Amino acid sequence: MALSSHVVRELRDILDAFGALRGGQTAVLASVVHTQGSTYRRPGARLLVLPDDEMIGLIGGGCLEGDLLEHAVRIRASGAPTLVHYDATAEDDVIWGLGLGCAGVVDVLLEPVSQAQPGPLSALGAWRDNRETGALATGLVEPLLGHHWALHPDGRLDGAPDDELRVALAECLESGRGRQIQAAGGRVSIEIARPPLRLVIFGAGPDALPVARLALGLGWEVELCDPRPAYAQPERYPGARVHCVPADEAIARVGIRRDTYTLVMTHHYLHDRALLADLLPSATPYIGLLGPRQRADDLVAELREDGATLTEEQLERLHGPAGIDLGGEGPDAIALSLVAEIQAVAEGRPGGWLRARKGPIHDPLLS
């Protein structure tokens, strides 16, 4: 199951902007609640329109935002949520419609939010802060348009869902996939909100800088471990957590969970071997190892000679050499290759050409 969220940086920015609202100020939250066919974003994408009409987030790649802003102005005045339906499947949409040309359908819920009435941002913010996964349901038709129900990871329920919706929330949280259902007397959208991808980089040398920068730009949580005080300096990695720790203590310091993706780039053979010995049996879904294939093979062979029993499943998680074959050179291009591979693994994608993909760009939604 993919742990990466497509909305992590966006949600962080929205929550930060929402948190800066003063008492009495009202913003408008726009959320994609349904899509069909080819669309720029998927359910769970959000945009926040602030009181001065500044927009935080992106839903339509720029082609819907102007229209959403006009709706937001009206919703701030009325205080009532609205569901806006965009249909670009008509042949004359390019000429007579919004001119999207992507042949898709998008439903966007717009609702007023304030500190007194945060709407779904309360649950989404709590799950993000606690690195938890929750299920959020949203009513799409009157009289429950804009009503929210939430199933928290500890089993708590908000919004008093009926039995049918309670079961659906639990099923979606268990499967990790949202869907639309008929419940509570109407159409309801259920989305799964996941925490940001967590990346731990072992090695804080100069080549780790662009990796951390790209990962942070995607909204990931980044931690770095290095025993060298000259490199393990937090000011070199703003936004990341930096640990100055011996290689053989690094994993115990940061903790490795099933939501932790790891990159081994110490450029020190013995340090890499010690790290692999602990990472391979750990729960991490991805171990990226810098260096040529022969170096990775030698490290694995030495671990086996030392008595380690390595399973096929463990070795499948080891990517050595790490990265996607993009063909670039230099630290920035290598960082792009590494981060792209982690993104693909997290989303369960092969990392190839989109034009070679059979079917739509996005996985079909359950209904």
Could you please describe the fold and organization of this structure?
There is one protein chain. Helix 7 runs parallel beside helix 8 and helix 8 (269-279) packs across helix 9 (293-305). It contains eleven helices and 16 strands. It has a six-stranded parallel sheet, sandwiched between helices. A five-stranded antiparallel sheet has the order 3-2-1-5-4, with helices on both faces. Strands 8-7-6-10-9 form a five-stranded antiparallel sheet, with helices on both faces. The protein is an alpha/beta fold and 367 residues long. The radius of gyration is 23 Å and the shape is elongated.
Q: Topology, please?
A:
Layout: H1 8-19, E1 27-37, E2 46-49, E3 55-57, H2 65-78, E4 82-87, H3 93-96, E5 104-113, H4 121-129, E6 134-139, E7 148-151, E8 157-158, H5 163-175, E9 179-183, E10 186-193, E11 198-202, H6 208-217, E12 221-226, E13 241-244, H7 247-254, E14 260-264, H8 269-279, E15 286-289, H9 293-305, H10 312-316, E16 318-319, H11 331-346
Parallel strand pairs: 11-12, 11-14, 12-13, 14-15, 15-16
Antiparallel strand pairs: 1-2, 1-5, 2-3, 4-5, 6-7, 6-10, 7-8, 9-10
Helix pairs in contact: 6-11, 7-8, 8-9
How much of the residues is beta strand, in percent? Answer: 15-25%
Return residue spans where pLDDT drops below 50 for at least 5 consecutive residues. Answer: 1-6
Distance between the termini: 19 Å
Order of helix and strand elements from N to C terminus = HEEEHEHEHEEEHEEEHEEHEHEHHEH
Number of helices, counting only DSSP H or I runs of 4 residues or more = 11
Total count of strands: 16
Work out the helicity level: 25-40%
Strand order, sheet with most strands: 13-12-11-14-15-16
Main sheet attributes: strand count, strand direction, barrel closure: 6 strands, parallel
Please state the average pLDDT score: 89
* Rg calc: 23 Å
Q: What gross morphology would you assign? A: elongated
Structural class: alpha/beta
